[in-house]
Structure formats: C-alpha cells, structure tokens
C-alpha cells in the first residue's frame, strides 16, 4: 500500500481567495488517496482572535472586531463560491458558536484554557472553507476534526502530545478514511482526555503535520511557505539570503531551537526519530525543489541569522551577598517551568543570573512575584535577540549599527546578541 504524504499549508497560503485558488492548483495534480492536508488559520486570523480575547479580558467591547473577522471570512467565500452555497450558513454558525464561547467568563486564572477554547476557531473556519472549495473544484476531500485525533495533556496553550493515544486515534479513525479519499484537517489544535480544546504552542501547525506523519508512518511531510525553502535568514529582514538545498535533522533542529520561524521547533524530532524526510517548498513557485531535510544531507556551515523580537532581559541578583550557585539556577528554572516560559538565552556571573525570555501576557509579573523575595530583579522589555550560527567577522561586525548592546554570548559556532534601538 502507498505510504501517506502530509502537506501543510500555513496562514499566508490561505490568506485570501486567490491564495485558496492557488492551493487548489498546487493540489490538483498531487491529490490521491493516503494524502493529508493540514491548514492553518487564514492570514492574521489568530492575531485578530488574540486581540478579541485581550479586549474581553479588559472588559472592553469586542463585537466590532468579531464582525470584522466574520466579514473577512465571508468576503473570501463570496469570491470562491456562488451565492447560496452551503459554506455561508456554516460560517454564520461557527461565529454563533464563537460568540457563545466568548460570553463565558475569563480571568487571569483561567486565561490559558479560555485562550485555547477561542483561538482554534481560526483553524476550524479555514479548514471548512478550503475543504468546501476543493470539493467545489471536483477535488473530493474529507474533513477531519484534528481534536478527535491529537490527544494531549491539559497544559493549555503549550499542550504535550499523548503519542500513544494519538497514534491509536490516527490508525483507527484516519487511516481507514485515507484508503478511500484524501483528508483535510487543522494544524495547531488538539484536545485533552476530557475533550477540552488545547493548542500545541503558537505556530504549531508544522508540529501537527509531524505528529500525523509519525502516527501514520508517513512517507514524507511537505510544508508550503511564502519563501523558496529554508534560508539562512528571514528575507523580510535581511538582504542577500542563501537557500539551503538540503539540511540534516540536527542542523535544522538547531535553527528552530534558536527561533528560525520557517519551521516550528518541535517539528524535527518526531520526523528524525522515524526517518521521515521534510520538504520546505514555496507555494509561489511550487515546481521549484525547495529544501529537503533528511538524515544524509550534506550541509554547509554558512552564517545563519535568526532574529527574535519582543524579548525581555531579566537579571536576578542574590540578596544575601552570596555567590550564584547551582541551587539558584534550579530555583529560577523551576519557576520558569511552572509559568511555561522558555529561556532563549542564559548567562551567569558570580552574583547574578541573566535570562532572555519571550513576552507573554501576565508572565513577567508572575515571575517577579515568585522570585522577588530571594533576588534583586531588574528587567528590560522590547528587546531583540539576534542569534548567528557559524558566524564570521564580516557577518557579525555590522549587526550592532544603530543598536545598543545589552548582553552578548559567544561559543565556537554561535553568537547571541541582545540589542535595542538607540
């Protein structure tokens, strides 16, 4: 039997009607049985939903924002479907369900669970529209709710996958469908054992593709992006970028660890464990080969630039005039883990610990509360963390032009710079 192929399309590839039509054209000569399509929310829908949640939390009116979001999806449908198509009442019904969820109470204590109940509507809306359009174009696909497949724990917003249950779900529910038809599902979302919606972390649709690939013993995963493949820097920020024709799993994982946005950080491990190749291709030039990530790749150690914005530098100094010991680092990491905060950079000195973390709503305030009895704490917000892999003198020398250097760390193959605009 032919092995399954997984194809994931991100928000940029379904951002408007033309993009959905382009997606259909890409799939037209590729679709077959044992073919899974994973889609993200359309365009900036996730950002809009986050804004609605923020307004709800601040007890402000969000109805106008919700109407804008509904009109955005209906406008796309109006360009794709004839008047009276079944998709229009379906979209209306989804927004009725969304408003029902939004009417429930929210607080700092239940924020993460509330977030997961709301934010997944973007993927549900997108997947319904794309599925209906493919069928309208005589490309018959089945719709599958990913929450019935991806089983997780109850760590809302950063849910961990129950691999055994997820594999069992995929083998029993998804595999029989794939023997008859291609299947379209959502990225980013799952459910815990009680059936409550969870998410896999921001931009987690790539990870969904890898989870399904591992659970179905797939032949390959292809991620469709608005770039030619994996580049040595984000072309929206840096000029003169270089395309990697191929990468091995280790180098790709290293890039994602430091924040390369082209692939979600958790994507590589399940594929590497199963020996499943990952292709990163451009939906703008679908016939170009893109980048292949696999075990036997011959890679070049060219300078690679990874920029993370909205960073916070937190410096913790012991207050009892002792030196920093291992117990202090354990104490800090214990609280970071409890708050689900990932450390992007760590530096210690004789009397202080410095960490760089992403901005997360409420999290800095909570971290300060947990640690201010034992540490004198200072912090700076609105910073950038620039990581350079395989740096050379020329590649690093100009990176601080117009910036103030807040913190620097170097190893044999990596330079990290925490900077802010002067």
Please tell me the total number of domains. Answer: 2
Structural class: alpha/beta
Strand order of the largest sheet: 3-4-2-1-7-9-10-8
Number of E-state strands:
16
- The CATH superfamily of the largest domain is known as Acetylglutamate kinase-like
Task: Describe the main β-sheet briefly.
Answer: 8 strands, mixed
The first-level CATH class of the largest domain is given as Alpha Beta
Separation, N- and C-terminal Cα atoms? 60 Å
Assigned CATH architecture of the largest domain: 3-Layer(aba) Sandwich
Beta content: 15-25%
Helix proportion of residues, in percent?
A: 25-40%
The arrangement of helices and strands along the chain is: EHEHHHHHEHEEEHEEHHEEEHEEHEHEE
What name does the CATH topology of the largest domain carry? Carbamate kinase
Mean pLDDT: 94
Given the structure, what is the number of helices?
13
Q: Please tell me how large the radius of gyration is.
A: 22 Å
Pfam family, one: AA_kinase
Protein name: Aspartokinase
EC number: 2.7.2.4
GO cellular component, one term: cytosol
């Amino acid at each position: 039997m032919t092995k399954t192929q997984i194809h994931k399309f991100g928000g940029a590839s379904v951002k408007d009607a033309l993009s959905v039509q382009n997606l259909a054209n890409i799939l037209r000569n590729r679709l077959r049985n044992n073919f899974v399509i994973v889609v993200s929310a359309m365009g900036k829908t996730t950002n809009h939903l986050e804004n609605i949640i923020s307004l709800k939390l601040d007890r402000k009116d969000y109805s106008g924002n919700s109407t804008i979001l509904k009109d955005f999806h209906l406008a796309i449908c109006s360009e794709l479907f004839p008047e009276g198509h079944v998709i229009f009442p379906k979209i209306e019904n989804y927004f009725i369900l969304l408003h029902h969820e939004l009417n429930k109470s929210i607080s700092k204590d239940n924020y993460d669970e509330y977030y997961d109940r709301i934010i997944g509507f973007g993927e549900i809306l997108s997947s319904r529209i794309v599925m209906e359009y493919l069928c309208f174009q005589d490309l018959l696909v089945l719709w599958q709710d990913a929450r019935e497949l991806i089983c997780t724990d109850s760590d809302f917003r950063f849910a961990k996958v129950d691999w055994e249950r997820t594999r069992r779900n995929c083998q029993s529910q998804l595999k029989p469908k794939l023997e008859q038809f291609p299947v379209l599902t959502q990225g980013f979302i799952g459910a815990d054992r009680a059936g409550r919606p969870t998410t896999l972390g921001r931009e987690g649709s790539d990870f969904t593709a890898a989870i399904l690939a591992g659970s179905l013993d797939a032949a390959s995963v292809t991620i469709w992006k608005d770039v030619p493949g994996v580049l040595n820097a984000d072309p929206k920020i840096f000029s003169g970028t270089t395309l990697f024709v191929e990468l091995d799993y280790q180098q790709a994982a290293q890039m994602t660890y430091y924040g390369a946005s082209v692939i979600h950080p958790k994507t590589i491990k399940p594929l590497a464990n199963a020996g499943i190749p990952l292709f990163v291709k451009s939906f703008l030039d679908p016939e170009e080969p893109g980048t292949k990530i696999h075990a036997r790749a011959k890679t070049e150690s060219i300078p690679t630039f990874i920029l993370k914005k909205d960073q916070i530098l937190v410096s913790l100094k012991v207050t009892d005039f002792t030196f920093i010991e291992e117990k202090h680092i354990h104490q800090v990491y214990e609280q970071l883990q409890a708050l689900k905060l990932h450390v992007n950079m760590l530096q210690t000195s004789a009397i202080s610990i410095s960490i760089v973390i992403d901005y997360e709503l409420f999290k800095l305030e909570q971290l300060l509360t947990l640690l201010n009895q034992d540490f004198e704490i200072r912090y700076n917000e609105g910073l950038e963390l620039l990581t350079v892999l395989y740096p050379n003198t020329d590649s690093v020398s100009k990176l601080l032009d117009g910036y103030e250097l807040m913190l620097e760390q170097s190893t044999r193959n990596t330079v990290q710079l925490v900077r802010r605009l002067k």
